[in-house]
Each structure stands twice: as structure tokens, then as C-alpha cells.
Amino acid sequence: MDIVFFGLLAVGIVTELVTKGGDAALASLIAGTQNAVQNGVTMAGGMLFWMGLMGVLEQTPLMARLSHSLQKPMRFLFPDAGGAAEAIALNLSCNMLGLGNAATPYGIEAMRIMEAENPEKGVATDSMCVLLALNASCLELFPATLVGLRQSFGSARPAAVVLPVLLSSACSTAVTVLLCRLCIRK
Description:
Layout: H1 2-20, H2 22-58, H3 61-69, H4 71-77, H5 85-96, H6 100-117, H7 126-137, H8 144-152, H9 162-183
């Protein structure tokens, strides 16, 4: 993957040099770097807030209730999840709140637990595949990261995307669940 990204960067720099010349290419590189740092710092505040909130919620009865309310769908989707059920529930909860970055550690932990319990090491179980597919389709009840990005870029209505994101992610997740149930090995 490093080679791909290096190749893309190299092609972009060479294209910039050929089309605009050395001074413009250097100015463009510097401006792009400044924008990336500014956007990263702007987003970091929002991400830290939401990740901190999830950390606090983990310690409260609210997360236990959310995890409990997800038990039936979890048993349906992940019949052999075993000890990974809590990490899966936290991963899906974070994704539903649009906190993909906060969901990642829980997803990795769930995969580690499922691999440790896997009788065929190195071969993905049905639950592993379902978790990966659900993370890709990602039902979002509230796209916190997207709303934060729109806010940081000065959108007049940063939350205007909430309903379209909810509808489209609900459709993609429904199709994902259907396909996963059809493809699970008996």
C-alpha cells in the first residue's frame, strides 16, 4: 500500500511540476500541507470530544443498556461471537453514532478475541466476516464526524446530511445483513 500512495504522490508532484512549474508546485505543496494540518487540528477537537464521551459512557449503565438492547440482533448476526460480543456491541454503537475512529479499537479487539477463540487459526469465521461487512456498510444514526467536518468548513446547515445519511446507511446495512444471512455457512 505504501508503494501505491508513494506512486500517487509522485504522479501528483510531477503533474504539478509539468503543468504549473517549480514555484507553483512548491507553493501548492506547502499550501496543501498547511490545509491538512489545519483540518486535522480542527477535526481533532471534535473527535477527542466524542471519543472521550464514549469512554465515559462505557463506565455508565447507559452503555450496559445499549449493549443489552443489542443482544438479540447480536445473537442473530453473530451466533458464534463468544467473548467478543461486548467489543462488537461497542464497535457497532460507535459506528451508529458516526464515530468510525472511536469504533476501530473495539473492532480490532473483537477480531482479536474471535481469532483467539477460532478453532481454525488464520481462517475468518462467519462472525468475523459479518463484522467486517457491517463496518463497511455502517448504519449511522447520527454522522457526528461528517457534521463536525461540515461545521468546521463553515456550512450553513451542517446537520442537513443527517436524514440522507440515515436513509442510505440503513439501506446499505439492510442489504448487508440480508447478504450475510444468505451466505453464512451452515
